[in-house]
Design goal:
The chain is an alpha/beta fold. Helices cover 50% and strands 16% of the residues. Strands 1, 2, 3, 4, 5 and 6 form a 6-stranded mixed β-sheet that branches.
């Protein structure tokens, strides 16, 4: 019995490592992003949209994308018509990606629309990660000067 439980735990932990970890709920993802001090990526998608399906069924299954995103972002994927989408993310374009500073809830850089190759997507998210860390450094400098 112990061996069965061990292998079940091992299997589950292995299988979860091979997927992009994301939420379908903005508020819980925002809370987690603040807690972990990570930027938030919000993808608004539509079922049947070829570019959305490309991102979810190809790009988000690439090991390099999964590893980078799970380590550096809290991700939210919401589908129009299925999920409750906050008004600020309500857009007719699919997919639309928003990158937010969880502490200010402000967008970092421009949102982008449409599917991307894994390489182009990684370039975009790496740029947003750098921007987020620069914002945090500037905020720390400002707070230090105020004290």
């Amino acid at each position: 019995m112990k061996k069965v439980i061990f292998f079940l735990i091992l299997f589950l932990s292995y299988s979860m490592a091979d997927t992009l970890q994301y939420s379908r709920y903005y508020s819980s993802a925002l809370y987690k992003a603040k807690k972990e001090s990570k930027p938030l990526m919000v993808m608004v998608a539509l079922r049947g949209c070829p570019a959305c399906e490309h991102m979810e069924n190809f790009v988000f299954l690439k090991d390099e994308v999964i590893t980078y995103m799970n380590k550096n972002f809290i991700s939210v994927i919401m589908h129009r018509g299925e999920d409750s989408i906050p008004l600020k993310f309500d857009t007719p374009d699919s997919p639309t990606f928003f990158f937010l500073n969880p502490f200010t809830k402000k967008e970092m850089g421009d949102r982008f629309i449409g599917g991307k190759s894994p390489e182009k997507f990684l370039k975009i998210v790496k740029d947003r990660t750098e921007l987020f860390h620069n914002i945090l450094k500037e905020n720390n400098k400002t707070q230090t000067k105020i004290k």
